[in-house]
Each structure stands twice: as structure tokens, then as C-alpha cells.
Amino acid sequence: MSPPSIVDAKLALAFKAIDLSQDDRLSWPDLAGIAEELSSRLHADKERELELTEAFQSWWRQFETKTGDEVTLDRFISVMKTGMAAGPAFYQQGPGRIVDVLIRIADRNGDGIISKEDYLAFYGGSMADESAVLAGYRKFDLNSDGAVTADEFRQAAYEFFTSEDLDATGSFLLGRPE
Fold first, then answer.
1. What is the pTM of this model?
2. Tally of domains within the chain
3. Is the residue at 126 inside a domain?
4. CA distances from 112 to 60, 115, 122, 143 (A)
5. Residue-range definition of the domain harbouring residue 22
6. Does any domain span residue 48?
7. What is the CATH number of the domain that holds 92?
8. Are 113 and 143 in contact (CB under 8 A)?
9. Could you read off the pLDDT of 96-149 as tens digits, one per residue?
10. Which of 96, 131, 138, 98 is nearest to 114 (CA)?
């Protein structure tokens, strides 16, 4: 058996981060809980909270139609890799939609910048180690101007789900995968 790929390792990190029940299975309540938690941490208004919940529902439907009510880690990785390989629609309707809503929530003043504080708020609690998260923030700042733009964040999020390069910007989204 070959070792897991870099993408597999990153997807395992994502799975662990969104498995709120910590039962090694994802269900709709896990994703709904993440949407609620992120909305709270980022001080989203009710409209944006609903938009984020709907984005998570859209992503969940990508699994639900293929796997039933619960998703194991192996199935999560399989569906994500198959979906991402099928073309951009899978990403745009699932993880990409969530990323876009999170950017709209985090960029309160509309300047296209995600502040370090708002970026840290994405990862509050136990989702990832703060020092690893800050290392990721610095890595996402592609032009080294001290700020992460919405486009830089979008690129990093997409790379998280697609790049087999351990040093790719997106590989640091939830801390460096091992």
C-alpha cells in the first residue's frame, strides 16, 4: 500500500477540523455546527450566517447524494478527489462557495483584505495550532505586503484541495500537513 498523497493528508486535516462530533464520521449536524461556529467567531450578521449555512448545505449535498447520511474519512477523500478532478463546478458549488462567503464575512469594510485577526478567527478553538495558522497567513501573502487579499485567500484555498506540493501556498491552510 502506498503512503497517502499530500492532498490526502490535507483532506484528512480538513475532515478532522469539521468533524465536530469527533466520531470519525461527518454528518450534516457537523457541517451546520461549523457554519454556526464560524458565523459566531466572525460576527456575521443573520443574512451572512444564512448564506454560509446554505454554502455548507451545498457542499454537504455533494456527499449526501453519493454516500447517504454519514461520511467516513475514506469516503470524504474519495468524493473530494473525484469531484475536484471532474472540473471546477464541484469546487465552485462546494468548498469554493464556502470560501467566497467567508471572505465576504471577514472583509467587513469591503477593501478586499482579510486581516490577520479575522484570519485567526476562522481557526478559533481547536481547528488548528495558532502558530501554524499564522505561518499560513504569512505564506498566503503572495506579494509580501503584510496583508492577505481575497484573491490570495481564494488561490490558497483552491490549492489546499488540489496541490500535491507540500510547499504550495494552499498546503498551509490548516497548518502544514504531515
1. 0.90
2. 1
3. yes
4. 28, 10, 16, 14
5. 6-162
6. yes
7. 1.10.238.10
8. no
9. 999 999 999 988 888 899 988 888 877 765 556 677 778 888 888 888 888 899
10. 138
